[in-house]
Amino acid sequence: MDYFLELFFGGLTRGSIYALIALGYTMVYGIVQLINFAHGEIYMIGAFTALIVASVLTFYGVNTVAILILASIVAVIYSSAYGFTVEKIAYKPLRNAPRLSPLISAIGMSIFLQNYVLLAQTSDFLPFPRLIPQFHFMEPVSHIFSSAELVIVVTTMVAMVLLTLFIKFTNLGKAMRATAQDKTMALLIGIDVDRVISATFIIGSSLAALGGVLIASHIGQINFYIGFIAGIKAFTAAVLGGIGSIPGAVLGALILGWTESFATGYVSSDYEDVFAFALLVLILIFRPAGLLGKAETKKV
Amino acid sequence: MLEIKNINAFYGNIQALHDVSITINEGEIITLIGANGAGKTTTLMSISGIVTPRTGQILFNGETISGMKPDKIVRSGLAHVPEGRHIFPYLTVMENLDLGAYLRKDKDNVKKDLEHVFTLFPRLKERMHQAGGTLSGGEQQMLAISRALMARPKMLLLDEPSLGLAPLIVKQIFDIIKRINEEDGTTIFLVEQNANLALKVAHRGYVMENGRITLEDDAKKLLVNEEVKKAYLGI
Ligand SMILES: Nc1ncnc2c1ncn2[C@@H]1O[C@H](COP(=O)(O)OP(=O)(O)OP(=O)(O)O)[C@@H](O)[C@H]1O
Ligand SMILES: [Mg+2]
After folding, report:
1. What global pTM score does this model have?
2. Closest ligand 1 atom, CA of B35?
């Protein structure tokens, strides 16, 4: 039973990280019908930014919780700036081009950012400080659910709730929903669609950066390639849940996290990815639009 | 109030509007009639800034609006009810109406305007919490017009409000269009394929063929014009 619970919480943690990244894919897709292949790299850049901030602050002897918070804030701001800029230079000029063009531009952007970090940093794994504290009250259960996992899951939940409230109740959130459902009409009621698109990239990048910082301080190492792997997994989660659907991305991410965790725990870690993608294929056969996706219509 | 001066608009290399000029005075209902593909929708989209004319100029209250971004044009007092209604399908009736007032800051007046559209279309009040996509065609058209009114526009652009609706609903909607013009003093530019109906509510009318304005006259005169009768009134 303990082993089952350990896998359950492990999967929940994984799923939370996937959810933070998957939201960026799904929100951008919902607004501009584009798969932002550079999104995984934004997550990776978030982790690297946090590493740099953490190294400096550690040098000055700042306490770890403060480092975690400050590093997260800087990573979020920095990654948002990247996400914003990527949209402006790689996608916006191609907004009326054939659909393949922005897709190729996205892949190009992803490769560029990977190599840029590779050159600026190194190809080796770099150690990342374990910034998440061990809580005393978690000690009795720490063999099945660690403090770091708790922090990741709770932070993700808070982020989801805030995002939902933002989309439901703020003007910009309403404008985002309107734009996702009917871009022409959004323009006709006076929504500045360019601004909505930028905001979407900024929010998606912020969540991804947060995911990057959390997972890096949990696992303890990063390299320039982590964005690619996590990006593909999160993208899978978004498709699984129905690309364009926000609850779908979260659901897809959790299912994917648990599938991987249980498959690794009960079968073999060699099959982790096989199970994940077999699940994706199965769901797409029976529900081509994904679990919560709406077939052939606009989403979010 | 609105002056379209010799605009030429293109989709790629295909020219959709040739040298189109239309003048609309404050308080008028002007109609633009024409067959499928004549360029009526393109004309309205050019006014709203969704289509940018390659040459020519559009003035609204003396200010050049051609080349401006759509949100600036809405801000200047134009509201557009597009062909096919474009209701936000997963938003409720109430949220659709709220979004009509997206650019407005005068919350008290927005409330008043909401009451006003509910008196024009009581059916919408009953359906307030229903998703826009689940409304009937007629209700969607009422919602589309109401959403535009929520912007408190000086001028309303209506693209084929009768499209696909039963005659009884069409009559209701056209009665309301007249009321909006007479009671609120809103200037109306009405695009219609149903020429008979449109010419009966309008003061003046323009006829468009293959992207060109071919006729312009008082609506009453167009109703008895031989060419118009043959081509658009089915008489
Ligand atoms: N987005 C577009 N891309 C390319 N061509 C277009 C586009 N929209 C319209 N056209 C073409 O421009 C011409 C004018 O179309 P428009 O929609 O303005 O006509 P309309 O008078 O509104 O017709 P209808 O009564 O059928 O609505 C048509 O030949 C149409 O095929
Ligand atoms: Mg049309």
Report:
1. 0.90
2. 25
